[in-house]
Design a protein that fits this description.
By secondary structure, this protein is mainly beta. The chain is built from 5 helices and 24 strands.
Length: 387
């Protein structure tokens, strides 16, 4: 029987694919380039396919491939069910990615996204009674739709806690730092005592690490105290913008705290030309950086070798004062300004502004972070096999 061209092509393709499938390293490399949701569907093909994509080695190489195609993950509007969108750099078209509304969350309050790392996001959901203000803390993978509610920490009295997320070079390791109020030093006086506890993905439990001197502040229009950046292996929070004695708090993965002063502005300057209430922390290429907004321009400072280095001052391209900056994030050399109705990007090298598209709904307490899709479980992957 004569083989047709179509039959020949199918036979050659089948033989070629069988060779690929039989070489696990090549097979995993091919699959690692595909989207998470496609890979999840492959788990039902057979046991070999399931085992090939369900181990730490594959999660690591897939994450490495995903990082070559970075995006932003956005929650334009805070609501009880958190709708998340992917934004591709350059186009900034909103594509709905997931709706996070896990069972067991406090349904009386709204969820806030406070960090993104290794394809996971950290969200907080307020809990409240007459004397305590606290949060449920959730780790979510929007791509796999998995959620994990962390155990409740110690009670925070008088004021809500502040939360920060740190993660190591090993994709299975992350830590959640929680600074909270344990009471007052002297009854009737405003001298509060603060402590910190840390949750580790390797143990799945909280552990007290003792007193801290400061509680991070509310940043500009943020509805919570958990605005922070993770850069160079440390978490950074703003504590005070008092001029000239503003300070910042940091902690590393080894749980060492440090207090740092903010950049110095001459007292001869006008108030609006010094540190302002509209000051944001961002991560610029791996370094913690400050963006200080003034009336019609902004300054950028970068923390390098234990001191602040002035980077740039430039004017705003959007001069419509009805547009107020509600949130700020960054990716490499690009700063993303989120106003109530638009996204604006500013590139530090070219000093050029670009107006991006409108969100599907008007921004209300927005949150946007750099994001890469991953298969990482919410527990950090500590139960994944090596290969």
């Amino acid at each position: 029987m004569v083989e047709t061209r179509a039959q020949h092509r199918r036979r050659v393709a089948s033989l070629t694919w069988n060779k690929v499938e039989s070489n696990q390293d090549v097979f995993q490399d091919v699959l690692s380039r595909l989207p998470v949701r496609s890979i999840r569907s492959f788990k039902t093909v057979n046991r070999y396919w399931h085992a090939s994509v369900s181990n730490k080695h594959f999660a690591t190489i897939h994450l490495a491939q995903s990082r070559k195609k970075p995006s932003y993950i956005a929650c334009p509007r805070v609501d009880k069910a958190m709708k998340l969108y992917l934004l591709k750099p350059g186009k900034f078209n909103y594509r709905h990615h997931a709706t996070v509304d896990p069972p067991g969350r406090s349904a009386d309050h709204r969820m806030h996204m406070i960090a993104s790392f290794n394809g996971l996001v950290c969200c907080i959901n307020q809990l409240y009674d007459e004397h305590e203000v606290d949060y449920q803390i959730w780790i979510c993978n929007p791509s796999t739709e998995e959620t994990l509610l962390l155990p409740q920490g110690r009670p925070s009295v008088w004021t809500e806690p502040s939360i920060g997320v740190a993660y190591g070079p090993d994709i299975s390791e992350y830590k959640i730092f929680r600074i909270f109020c344990v009471g007052k030093r002297n009854a009737g006086k405003g001298d509060y005592l603060y402590e910190c506890e840390v949750y580790s993905s390797s143990t799945g439990a909280w552990r007290s690490i003792g007193p801290v001197l400061h509680l991070p502040m509310y940043v500009c229009f943020s509805p919570h105290r958990s605005d922070h950046v993770f850069a160079g292996g440390k978490i950074y929070w703003l504590v005070s913008l008092e001029d000239p004695a503003g300070i910042m708090l940091s902690v590393d993965m080894e749980e060492n705290f440090e207090v740092m002063e903010l950049p110095y502005y001459s007292t001869d300057l006008r108030d609006e030309d010094r540190i302002t209430v509209a000051t944001y922390l961002i991560n610029l290429g791996g370094s913690p950086s400050l963006v200080v907004l003034h009336a019609d321009y902004f300054d950028v400072w970068e923390w390098k070798e234990a001191s602040w280095v002035f980077v740039i001052a430039d004017e705003f391209d959007f001069m419509d004062f009805a547009e107020i900056v509600l949130f700020m994030t960054s990716s490499e050399k690009e700063i993303l300004f989120v106003t109530d109705s638009h996204l604006w990007t500013y590139h530090l090298d070219t000093r050029k502004w670009k107006k991006r598209g409108r969100p599907p709904t008007r921004f209300t307490n927005p949150a946007i972070f750099p994001f890469t899709q991953s298969l990482l479980p919410c527990n950090g992957g500590v139960r994944l096999d090596g290969r």
